[in-house]
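DM from R.C. (forwarded with permission)

"hey, sorry to bug you on a friday — could you get me a structure for this? deadline for the figure draft is monday and I only need the backbone to look sensible"
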Amino acid sequence: MKEMAKGSNVALAALSENAGSVIVSLSWVSPTGEGDADVSVLLLDENGKVRSDGDFYFYNNPVAADGSVQMLGKTPTDSGDEDRISFDLTVVPPGVERIVVAASRYGGAGFGELEDLKVILADGSGEALVAFAIEDAGAVSAIIFGELYRRGEEWKFRAVGQGYDAGLAGLATDFGVDIEDDAGEDEAAGPYEGQQGDLQETAPEAGREAPQVLPQEPVLGLVPAPRPAADETVPKKPVRPRTAKKKVTVPKAPKKSLAENETWRQARLFPASALKSDRDRETRATSVLLSVMAQVPEFGRRLTAAFGAPAGRMETFTEVSLPHGDTPRRPDGVIRIERAGKLWTALVETKTNGNALKSEQVQAYMDIAARRGYEAVITLSNDVALEGSPLVDVKVDGRRKHKVALWHLSWAEVAHQAQMLIRHEGVGDKAHAWLLLELLHYLRHDNSGCHGFQNMGAAWVPVRNGIDDETLCAGDPRALDVVESWERLVRQICLSLGGELGQKVLPVQRAKRGADPKERRSRLADQLCLDGRLLAELRIEGAPGILAVSADLRTARLRTSIEIPAPEQGYPLTWVKRLVRRLADAPADLHVETLVEGDTGTGPRGTLERLRPEPADLLPKNPDTRITGFRLSLLKGMGSGRGNAESGFIRSVDDAVNRFHTGVVVHLDKAGAA
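My reply, with the result:
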């Protein structure tokens, strides 16, 4: 991978033969775990301007109709997460000369508060080609990380690193996005229901000094309104701009059933009740998924864009026979996409019901793909892949000119993407929404075998026993296995909760970017041996703080908690009264603890049931003690089984996180205790 300096450029064709499709990843690390930014993309003509507002892509306009741009969202990594964007450069309209990739912060935050700002560009096979680290971000609220641009018939990438004091507004207006104030249209168009933004006047081109911040103007057009500041109330639902064509979603509450009684079962397009064997489950699951991918373009593109596939006509196949030595191989499925007379092909190997992928099987498919000029092998199972801990070991022949990418999907990721489309983002027509709903019903059926990660592994019981009798020693490889299983479980919970909310939910990693994931997990495993606890933190978009999860294997107790800051103004008695009022519908056994300055850091505490009649009990006895915030916690018994049974550990963690979010976090907002 080539490390680039600010202002340098490189021709993509000189680095890879698979540069027709590229994935650009933007990343940063927040020391507090709460800092984040929004990614945006602008397609510019020869004059350096967007051709229309439709050339501006962001979280409310994430996909180009021609497939040239698709924002893939955030993906957890070992040192935080990456915001990934897929570009199919072969279909970028001829009038587009430059593609600008930027990110912006909101609520008065600057990029100087984040660390390890970096952009990485990978080719269609997933191989990282170039990287550019931004060292001097400062207090700017928007940054152009890099840009793709044409030179004749080829594409090049430039490392930019240009900051804008005027934020996203200055960047957008500089490139011609229409944000003119039109009070007469405000009520009629209402793309943001009257919300006001902090958009400023035109910012300079990359390479020039950033302008001073100018007065605020209302937002119209496609520019996203900034997120509310810390002292503003967060709306219950994210406000979305109107689109030219209304998309179809399904209601969260199902219609009243016409069944005569509860024993009647609704007919399903993809029945799962008759499945008897693992082979039946694998065959049915593969066929169901691939057929829906081919018939619902938004869904098929959503899954394959992350693998460097082009946007085009997709066909899918099952039980294909391919020659391999003396015995033909039959992968579970094949995906083919045609674009401009060229074919992109991926072999699919599927496992269900917790069955593990087999290295020799995947290796055979990698060899076949390499010989036949296919682009990828996609594995699909209940397991969740982690960086630095591959699910299968395969050897890649470096002498081959043609590269084959190995990608992995978990069934939980498939369900997450389906739910995001039909519940929150919408698809093109009702039939497609119905197909995705049927797919989701199938994946969730007890008999489908597609339930995601559901087994803590063979090391789970020995490690728990070793913690109980204090015989587990640092360096025990079984503790490392449990740490990896815990990390997979946390990532799956993020997918599940994010699909329900329609918001980003990501595990928090505070490690420096680039740190060895194996070393990090080894330290966590030694810590598990020492204190018997598994710890995780989740960042939920719109929540006032980080949701912490602690599984104490010694006491068999789960603790879910969140810390919210104290208001900057007002009186402490007013704060605690408002907090208790806001938690009127929260569980009575919720623990509330006052956080104070000083060596101990903690003050009075009590259950919500006890505090409701006497909120003042949360105030420190010394009136001069400064309150810094409040910690809210729920405790729950922990399942002992390693699997996803009703009494299992996985089910108990999932239930604890969902109970805490629905019972506590939803009653809070960015104003914290105010």
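R.C.: lifesaver. The chain is about 25% helix and 25% strand.
me: no worries. The first strand starts at residue 2 and ends at 3.
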